[in-house]
Fold this sequence. Notes:
The protein has 290 residues and is of the alpha/beta class. The protein folds into two domains: 2-181, HUPs (Rossmann fold, 3-Layer(aba) Sandwich), CATH 3.40.50; 194-283, Pantoate--beta-alanine Ligase, Chain: A,domain 2 (2-Layer Sandwich), CATH 3.30.1300.10. It has helices spanning 13-25, 41-53, 71-76, 81-91, 101-104, 124-128, 132-147, 159-171, 201-206, 209-220, 226-237, and strands at residues 2-4, 7-10, 30-35, 56-61, 95-97, 151-155, 177-181, 242-251, 267-275, 278-287. A seven-stranded mixed β-sheet has the order 1-2-5-4-3-6-7, sandwiched between helices. Helix 7 crosses helix 8 (159-171). Bound molecules: adenosine monophosphate. The site of adenosine monophosphate has 17 residues, from helix 2 and strand 6.
Amino acid sequence: MARNKGIRVIETVSELQSVIREFKKKKQTIGFTPTLGALHEGHATLIQRSKKENDISVCSIFVNPTQFNEKSDLKKYPRTFEADKKILEKIGCDILFFPNEKEIYPNGSDYAIKVNLDGLDKRMEGAFRPGHFEGVVQVVYRLLEIVKAHHLYMGQKDFQQFTIIQKMIDKLKIKTKLVVCPIKREKDGLAMSSRNRRLGKTIRKNAIILNKTLKSVKLKMDSQSPEELCQFALHKLNIIDFKPEYFIIIDGYKLTPIRSFDDTEYAVACTAVWAGDVRLIDNMILKSKK
Ligand code: AMP
């Protein structure tokens, strides 16, 4: 174990588990934020919330190969360990768990827990990124098995992801409580993402079209149907260098498209757009009881 200005960097499961056991003996609560690294202020908001709500905060950095359906995407994924560690130290995160693949998948990555996700994994991202959510469920299950956190922090940015993880937690009766944090955006409205650093200058500037479109849809929802709004949005997103993959208005619980805003109390617009060769996702809650 390396000690670093207050942050413990732990690379093995056995060491992390023994440290966690000590915390639990002292009745300390544990907040856990899993990430792929290349940390930005969006990740920071999750860890800050974890710090506020728990005695000990653990962040993991693991670029999980099983959730990348495109091997080229896995290869291109930014790896910025030193910068990430500095960010975590600044926030005051207690433990950085930085395992290698063997630690996470000691018996190989073929074996994965089977959970019936009631089809939540088949739509949107699931339809365009086959195998992605199997990989996400596999790694989050494994990480929770290791960390046994009281609270798990995830971002609304990945709307389908947190919905699926909540389903997994419910179905497997896992004791960890999921806490979802709002989307942190750049000043111009672009949702923060590790992928943004791969955007060229002009494409980066024009990428505000995602947030702008979501905002326009929200403004128009009293006068147009979900289907009309999706058509409008797809048209608006179709600018030079940009290619929308989907724009869909869904029931936020079932993740199925809605025909009318009267059909649900929880309506969410979700989109995925290719910005050059970078795939961006974003979403906005249009209607919610909360
Ligand atoms: P990732 O490293 O992309 O797997 O993200 C780790 C966690 O950070 C996930 O739960 C994401 O939803 C969350 N996250 C990523 N970007 C943002 C953002 N802009 N605002 C809030 N949370 C985010």
